[in-house]
Amino acid sequence: MQTGDRNDAIGVGVIGLGRAFTLMLPTWVQDERVRLVAAVDPRIQACEQFRNDLGGATYDTVGELCTDPAVEAVYIASPHQFHAKQMEIVAAAGKAILVEKPLAITLEECFRIVQIVDTTQVPVIVGHSHSFDGPVLHAATLLSQGRFGDVRMAHALNYTNFLYRPRRPEELDTAQGGGVVFSQAAHQVDTIRILMGGMVESVRAHTGRWDSSRPTEGAYSALLSFQGGAFASLTYNGYGHYNSNELMGHVDEMGYERQTSAFDYTRGALSMVDETSETRLKQARNFGGDDYRREMPASTPHHQHFGHILVSADKADIKLTTKGLDIYQGGSRSFVATPKSSVPRAEVVDELWAVVREGMEPLHGARWARATMEVCFAILESARTGNDIRLRFQVALSRKLCPRPDKGSHSGTKQKKNPGS
Amino acid sequence: MQTGDRNDAIGVGVIGLGRAFTLMLPTWVQDERVRLVAAVDPRIQACEQFRNDLGGATYDTVGELCTDPAVEAVYIASPHQFHAKQMEIVAAAGKAILVEKPLAITLEECFRIVQIVDTTQVPVIVGHSHSFDGPVLHAATLLSQGRFGDVRMAHALNYTNFLYRPRRPEELDTAQGGGVVFSQAAHQVDTIRILMGGMVESVRAHTGRWDSSRPTEGAYSALLSFQGGAFASLTYNGYGHYNSNELMGHVDEMGYERQTSAFDYTRGALSMVDETSETRLKQARNFGGDDYRREMPASTPHHQHFGHILVSADKADIKLTTKGLDIYQGGSRSFVATPKSSVPRAEVVDELWAVVREGMEPLHGARWARATMEVCFAILESARTGNDIRLRFQVALSRKLCPRPDKGSHSGTKQKKNPGS
Ligand SMILES: NC(=O)c1ccc[n+]([C@@H]2O[C@H](COP(=O)([O-])OP(=O)(O)OC[C@H]3O[C@@H](n4cnc5c(N)ncnc54)[C@H](O)[C@@H]3O)[C@@H](O)[C@H]2O)c1
Ligand SMILES: NC(=O)c1ccc[n+]([C@@H]2O[C@H](COP(=O)([O-])OP(=O)(O)OC[C@H]3O[C@@H](n4cnc5c(N)ncnc54)[C@H](O)[C@@H]3O)[C@@H](O)[C@H]2O)c1
Questions:
Q1: Which whole number is the average pLDDT over A318-335?
Q2: Which of B161, B204, B232 sits opposite A204 (nearest CB)?
Q3: Which residues of A touch B204 (CB under 8 A)?
Q4: Residue B257: what pLDDT?
């Protein structure tokens, strides 16, 4: 399976050149530990741009992509509903997998994936998700070392305009994986599980479906209990009024400072647009689209984030910021910076490298991600039935966390000299 | 029952000259619609100071206080466990009642109180609580008028050092009404009920008891659902690390700007102090205590508050601030100031005046407060049993809310010319 040498950049094949790929592109082209070599996407324009701008090969099918010997690892960034099937094909070809969250859209699919992974023994990482954000891993490391005593509770809040950004039809249909639980709780739950050690015991939740023109979940509040008695409260609202970036120093999810907290899209903006046009609108601003500008602005001093997050341990409360950790004791704050690469989302490549080149267990493996999705499914079920849902397939953090190396170390990010080539 | 004329200041008798009274004192002495005339407290020093500084009579028993013809309304600010019994005596004497939150410490007591109120027909208001804060009533007024469409969800968060302030032994014993659920959820739940219309349907909650030297609830997270499908997430942590005043512009609960968010007392500070000494420590800084300084600093431009509160309706999200309401639509914020009296907590006197002088129904009546306590009891029960608790004794807002008059109106606050005399 490992075709490269221990120090060669990992050859990455991509399935799906849409929004997720567009957001990961700065990472792929700037991090010298990876190089894009191939892609599959039904959109001809995107394939063309991939060949022209990035110099990689494009294929018609996932099966063909997997025969390309330059492809060591496959980044699956297609819509949710394709993840399970495509993982099966890639795993059968023996390639390592980085698959976008959510892992899959039913628990059955998640089980099938775990089985495939067990059988084929291919390395699997589920991400990017915001649980890769530097300050999340940093806080989880300190907490899991017991630095602040027992971890007791967490609180997470995020208010965005998720529901009103241009969407594919599936993204507005819960049965097909639409709504904020599949796409956003997958981030928030994963993050809180990493901070709290992973073992969720029960879930109670309410969801909101408040706009009949976008008939899927646009908001939720969930209460999670953890093994040992800790608990967490998670709240997400994607209806596009309050913008919780104001709690994060007006830095947006991607780590950029914003002059304004006004949303690009809000309720009603897309109400005159039909499904097909809306899908086109979504595609236009992504790779291969008419309005696409490669987003590789000057490096930002900020980590990416997923809203306001507080974790309480016996000896301190920790607030995650876009630069590191605010540690509160007795109301007084001290700040600990989280080392940051100039490459955004370098933490994803850290894990890919550790798994593919160094044979380590993934932190965000298939069982881990199944457990996160079990919580997401429980949020929907609890909201529907009014019951407390007990969880059965949780797993604890599978390996010791270690903070990303500050600089200079062998496995640390090195930025390419000529990114984009 | 009404001994005064329609425009006379209401004569107030006080039961319990401790912390709560100390915090209300600026209101009693500055608001010209009320005057302190009598008090009962087992602490001789406090009674002495009451006579000397405030010129009122003091009595040995509640029964005697109630025979004082100058007493029109009685403010019950004794420890929780005395509220029910003392209300019974006061109601039998036909005096109006303002009783501190929590109404009582068992649902049975709450029922008995409602029965007494029904029988005697005395006016009852339960407060002060932070649901009287100007911005809460202002937001509730706009929301209940349907100004922003259907109300969908709310979120409340408060992190303090509640557990580490000097306490009486009962305050650290849940069975006697100790811990943050009785003393702090009583504020937070009341506030959220007013904003959401009152009718809670179900409660799921977790509580934290994480310091064996203070063996009562120091934290909770609760999920409330409301009639019609709205929901709210409430989180409170009183363990004294993070200080959520930083989300309120560093304005504290009482409306004062603070240079520092460091807490006066934190974990361990009282660990060498025995129960009796700790009770004395609590008393020392209150009325009649050795370290008491009458807290009547220059008027503040800020309303009091109980942490960070967001309410979402279809057409807007509202964030309560210490000066009014931030109203968000599409991420853009507009601000609406909430009129503020120079007398702190004038809203309590507004309601007392409306009820005693104008014969209006209280907003914070006994049934209303019983419903708030039903939610608090459900928080404890849900945390203990792991179940979702259905509520049975909820009541909707009993009268149309109206914002407090801006100025000059007949029933608006007028500050005394010579406060403290
Ligand atoms: N981690 C993140 O920050 C993030 C952000 C956005 C999306 N995502 C995830 O990425 C995935 C894709 O979402 P998106 O928003 O990029 O969607 P998208 O519609 O923008 O992109 C999907 C792309 O996949 C292509 N595609 C469709 N069917 C395909 C198939 N069968 N095989 C190969 N390619 C196919 C489409 O043409 C399109 O280019 C989702 O699972 C989503 O949850 C993650
Ligand atoms: N609304 C608020 O902001 C607020 C703040 C603090 C307390 N409170 C409420 O006020 C009540 C009292 O709490 P506290 O913190 O002031 O307690 P405290 O101990 O500071 O004061 C209680 C006072 O009542 C006196 N007392 C004790 N037993 C009495 C009795 N049987 N009859 C008459 N007086 C008696 C005590 O001597 C003391 O002076 C509680 O119900 C509490 O929840 C409300």
A1: 97
A2: B204
A3: 204, 223, 388
A4: 94
pTM of the model: 0.95
Q: Closest Cα of chain B to A169: distance in Å?
A: 22
| Distance (Å, whole) CA B90 – CA B360 | 20
* Domain B133-342+370-401: assigned CATH number: 3.30.360.10
Chain B, nearest residue to A157 by Cα: B155
- Find the closest chain B residue to A244 by CA distance: B331
Ligand 1: residues with CB < 6 A are A 15-20, 23, 40-43, 46, 77-80, 82, 100-101, 128-129, 168, 183, 282, 286
Return d(Cα A208, Cα A174) in angstroms, integer: 12
The β-bridge partners of B178 are none
What number does CATH give the domain A10-130+343-366?
3.40.50.720
- Ligand 1, atom 38, residue with closest C-alpha: A18
For residue A268, which of A323, A330, A213, A344 has the smallest C-alpha distance? A213
pLDDT digits (tens, 9 = 90+) for B331-387: 999 999 999 999 999 999 999 999 999 999 999 999 999 999 999 999 999 999 999
pLDDT digits (tens, 9 = 90+) for B217-275: 999 999 999 999 999 999 999 999 999 999 999 999 999 999 888 998 998 888 888 98
CB-based contact A223 B225, cutoff 8 Å: no
Q: With an 8 Å Cβ cutoff, are B152 and A208 in contact?
A: yes
3-state secondary structure of A293: coil
Q: Which residues of A touch B153 (CB under 8 A)?
A: 206, 208, 219, 221, 237
Q: Among A157, A204, A331, select the one facing B388 at the smallest CB separation.
A: A204
CB-based contacts of A31, cutoff 8 Å, min separation 6: A341, A343, A346, A349, A413, A414, A415, A416
- Over the stretch B293-338, which tens digit does the pLDDT of each residue have? 876 666 889 999 999 999 999 999 999 999 999 999 999 999 999 9
CA distance linking residue A73 with residue A353, whole number of Å: 10
- Write out pLDDT tens, residues A55-107: 999 999 999 999 999 999 999 999 999 999 999 999 999 999 999 999 999 99
Backbone angles phi, psi at B233, to 5 degrees: -115, 125
Where exactly does CATH 3.30.360.10 map onto chain A? 133-342+370-401
Note the ligand closest to the C-alpha atom of A132.
1
